[in-house]
């Protein structure tokens, strides 16, 4: 189960238990692929057996630390929570979605945003057209 894998990954990397767990499904468009942003109609379907699960906890620093099981190498990164956007490192690429979500909190005026530790596990195939990046951002 993805939640158990995420908790185990978190505990193994950060040597403590997570305080929050969330999940978001992958999705597929039954009709209307790439028409929604052209004023067209779409009929998306959530994939209940393909989810992105994220567990985490605040770490009382200004650093965001992220680990994933999706890659054998380069599966961990950290960055200052306040340094995201145009000047931020784009590596590793898989973490840019996490950085984008953090950036939106700052753009929304949440200057008190704190660092956190995060473990992500996904059953949504990467690059398979099932919105794995959207599932990550929603979770």
Descriptive account of the structure:
The protein has helices at 2-14, 96-107, 132-138; strands spanning 20-29, 44-58, 63-68, 76-80, 116-122. The chain is an alpha+beta fold. It is globular. The model has no long low-confidence stretch (mean pLDDT 83). It contains 3 helices and 5 strands; from the N terminus they run αββββαβα. Helices cover 23% and strands 31% of the residues. Strands 1-2-5-3-4 form a 5-stranded mixed beta sheet, sandwiched between helices.
Q: Percentage of helical residues?
A: 10-25%
The outline comes out as: globular
Number of strands: 5
Mean pLDDT: 83
Strand content: 25-35%
Counting DSSP H or I runs of 4 or more residues, the number of helices is 3
Instruction: Give me the secondary-structure category.
Output: alpha+beta
The side-by-side strand order for the widest beta sheet comes to 1-2-5-3-4
Radius of gyration: 16 Å
Low-confidence segments: none
Largest sheet: 5 strands, mixed
Topology record:
Elements: H1 2-14, E1 20-29, E2 44-58, E3 63-68, E4 76-80, H2 96-107, E5 116-122, H3 132-138
Parallel strand pairs: 3-5
Antiparallel strand pairs: 1-2, 2-5, 3-4
Features:
single chain; 139 residues; alpha+beta; 23% helix
In a few lines, what is going on in this structure?
It is built from three helices and five strands; from the N terminus they run αββββαβα.
